[in-house]
Amino acid sequence: MHIVVRVRVRTVRAPGADMREHVDRRGWRRHVLWGWLLALLFAGLVAPAASAPPSFVARCELEGVVDTGSGAYLADCVKRAEDGGATALLVRLDTPGGSLEATRAVVRAFLGSRVPVLVWVGPSGARAGSAGVFISLASNVSAMAPGTNIGAAHPVGLRGEDVEERGGEQLARKVENDTVAFAEGIARQRGRNPEWAAAAVRDSASVPADRAVELRVVELVAPTEAAFLDAVEGRRVEVAGGDTVTLATRDAHVVSLTPGLSQQVVHALAQPSIIYLLFLVAVLGLVAELSHPGAVAPGLIGGVALVLALMASATLPVRSGALVLMLVGVGLIIAELFVTSGLLGAAGTGLLILGGVFLVDRFEPGWFVEPSFRLSWGVMLPTALLFAGSAAFIAYRSAQTRKLPQRGGDVGLVGEAGTALGPVTPSGGEVFVHGERWRAVSFTPIREGAQVVVRAVEGLTLTVAESMP
Q1: Residue 138 near residue 190 (C-beta atoms within 8 A)
Q2: Coil, helix or strand for 428?
């Protein structure tokens, strides 16, 4: 018989051991929890800094007249800078002025911008003339390169006439007062000198860069765009909505904003010389097509140039009478192709030159531009003379062509030589003339194989005679 003895061993723990083990586990969990919290906090601080895009400054430039195309481009630059999150918008300015309507659109965009607008008049030799004064005043911060000037915003005709001389005293006062109020309102909103802004309109005041800083017209003199961006670093400006923004432009990446195709085309066409040249190209193309019917290419080029010229004339304040003079000149030159007397062509060329002189000479109250903006004689005379010479050459060649003997048709066969294919008598025969077989008659008998010459053509019968050796 087997006896199984079961022994149960019980471990006796010292008093307080369970409590210490529980405390150790809670401490370990607390350390792990704090570690995770610190890791998440560190990741939250580092991740935004790593993913934050670098600051950039949007850049656009206005060179030339302020027209519908360039005005739309500057207003579009403001919107693109806001949508892209730019630190600021830098505008390089060099303009003689332009359309007041387009200028007002630019000013509205600048004053309503949520992105600080920085205007730099440069490089040296540039100017912010006439309507350009309003654009510069509307910026948050403005600077000028050495050797630049700003001012002369008095409304004038495109040849420099005073408004009172062209439109009367009442119109002059109305236009002037409206423009003064416009300039003063912009200057006060941007904290600049409203007295000088009024003087720029009333007295055509114009000042260089250093004097503009003294008069609080602009804030800085900066030789380059980079120097301008460095100088405004940390400056606080107020944008639309009353928000204050601290500029961070030093070492910022500059992104150039290019105009759209339609804006480029409209701006390129808004030049007096371009309008004049387009009219001349249109005339030359139409003249060439009329003198050589069926050539197609000259007529197509002339038609396109004429359409572009009419489109361009809508962007500038041109004289309607000047366009009429140019069109009459075109008609006289075309008539010269049929008359070839020389007088009509000379008169037409003279009217083209006269129309060019008065092309952009009409006073327009909504147009503020320096007197230097006009069709210069240096462009008009050489092109007009070149055109006159080309038209005279075409007329001369056309006259020569009309004097040549006719080579086609019945009349063209008279005088052509051929060969008798058989005996030719007054009753009939056959000859080979001009690569073809013809029925022929002759007043005197002609032997086979003899050389003949055509004397007359009656229907499909030739009258020939034997050619003498």
Answers
A1: yes
A2: strand
φ, ψ dihedrals at 154, nearest 5°: -70, 135
- Is the peptide bond prior to 53 cis by the omega test (within 30 degrees of 0)? no
User: Please, what is the Cα angle at 299 between 296 and 301, to 5 degrees?
Assistant: 105
Amino acid at 253: H
CA atoms within 13 Å, Cβ hemisphere of 418 = 28
Whose CA is closest to 249, among 89, 91, 52, 82?
89
pTM: 0.64
153 and 130 Cβ atoms separated by less than 8 Å: yes
Print pLDDT tens along the chain (469 aa): 444 444 444 444 444 445 444 445 555 555 555 665 555 555 444 444 333 345 799 999 999 888 888 999 999 999 999 999 999 999 999 998 888 888 999 999 999 999 999 999 999 999 998 889 999 999 999 999 999 999 987 665 433 444 444 444 665 677 778 889 999 999 999 999 999 999 998 888 899 999 999 999 999 999 999 999 999 999 999 999 889 999 999 989 999 999 988 888 877 777 778 888 888 788 778 777 776 777 778 888 888 888 888 777 776 767 777 878 877 877 787 777 667 667 777 787 788 778 877 776 545 555 555 555 566 666 777 776 776 676 677 667 666 665 655 555 556 678 888 999 999 999 899 999 877 899 999 988 999 989 999 888 888 888 999 887 6
Q: What is the CA radius of gyration of the chain?
A: 43
- CA–CA dist 113, 93 (Å, integer): 18
What are the DSSP E strand ranges found in 185-342?
206-208, 220-221, 236-238, 244-246, 253-256
Q: In whole angstroms, give the CA distance from residue 287 to residue 299.
A: 8
Report, in this order, helix, strand and coil percent for the chain, each rounded to 5.
Answer: 50, 20, 30
Alpha-carbon distances of 256 from 56, 57, 80, rounded to whole Å: 10, 9, 11
Phi, psi for residue 319 in degrees, rounded to 5? -80, 130
